[in-house]
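To make this tangible, we now present a fold written out as tokens:
***
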Amino acid sequence: QTDFSRAVKYDDAAAFLDEQMKLNIACRGWLETAYYDLGSDYRASGNASYTLSYMAQMGGWAVMDYALNFAKDPATYMRLGFASYLSSWALLNSGTPESNYGYWYPGKNDDGGASGGFEPRPWGRAWLGNKEMGRGPWWYSGEIDLGFTGALRTAATVVVDDPIFGLFAYGGDLETKNGLTQVVPKDGLRTRFHILRGAQRVHILLGRDGFAKGQHVSFNGSLRRINFILENRAAAPHQTAINISGLPAGSYEVTLGDHPAQKFASKPGADNQLLIPMDGDKVSVELTRLPSSAH
């Protein structure tokens, strides 16, 4: 019989979360900026042992989630979390006919293969089979599929107001034009978009389909207006669910193309779900905050 009288206190859960994040960072490359160190998980021997294992990206997923949802200084954790997201992709052996299909193991037969870890020393021994090898990726994949799975759950375009670099887009191209911030998502999936500015945390998450390739997500400084184009990734008409949270409080109108479609109210700490009909190849979506008198 379960005793529900011993409830977990929020402060205890928050303290546990902070402690776990400290431990995550303690075994993660942050100071050395070599591609096989930065964001990678470290084992007992630190960066003198193999790096870029599956836990580089899986643990990086946790770092980035902490930046998006919990950290008081998200920019610091985003630098490390996104580096971890990118890290183990360096083990992927892939290329074009002109590059002979891969840097690590050239040849068409090995195109698309991936290694399970990276030997950072000029000369050492690989973990499996204790085979000697020089600096570079292992010749077997091991558990890297777990890392890539974590990376796919991490992939997002994130706009951050960084105290060092200013307004910056991780996983996207950013420019400001006519008072608008315009960001072209290039994170690989184009299904998650976040804005982190000061205490502001805006999350736009697509249940399916994606932000249209090569098209920008735009917003003004007050977030009174947000525009983006969705692409239909299915072969038939359907509805796409968009979960939005963190917008400034108020009432918003959703316009699809030139046609007002629905309204919703944004409240602190609340999520809003929009259902967008995808009848064609693409649909233009605009969110507009209404004046107070129109609420």
Summary: The radius of gyration is 22 Å. Residues 10-26 form the longest helix (17 residues). The chain has a mean pLDDT of 93. The helical segments are 10-26, 54-69, 74-87, 144-154.
